[in-house]
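Recall that a protein's primary structure is simply its ordered list of amino acids. Everything else, from secondary elements to tertiary packing, is in principle encoded there. The following example makes that idea concrete.
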Amino acid sequence: MKVGDSIVLFCSILIFRKSRKKVIIINIKNKKIIDVVSVFFCVLLFSFATIQAFAKTATNDIPVASPCYNYTQSTTASLSIQQGTATCSSTITGYPKLATKITTTMYLEKKFLWWWNQEASWTKTVNSYYNAMTKKQNVGNGTYRLRVEYKVYSNNSSETITGYSKEVTY
């Protein structure tokens, strides 16, 4: 059986005639109609197909998106506040053979209505593919976050990455 014959068989139409209660099979042999019907069924088939995509899952089952960078493997930014002292920490790991210099700038920000005001900032530059920084700052009551800007150099080019900690209310 050829593919065309199977399409003809597939596209056979059953018509029920009420008056005589008979079933009549009509084979469609017109090539144009077969092509149109084939395309229709293909579109119909693929319109119900679903594609599933899953985000990378963190250890606490919260989906996280992981962007790709040219010279950077990973970054972290964390903020904790205990007894009026904010501890701001950040790390960045570049690709060992590509990242030659990293500049990290941390900004401790306090929320005021709908925008963020800078409370303190620190900068550290290293001629390496890894940079880590931890700083402490006295804070008052309010909602804070840590914004970190990383600039990773590789020979004559660079990339800039901005990361944020979770908001912390004290």
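The chain is about 15% helix and 55% strand. Residues 75 and 142 are 26 Å apart (CA to CA).
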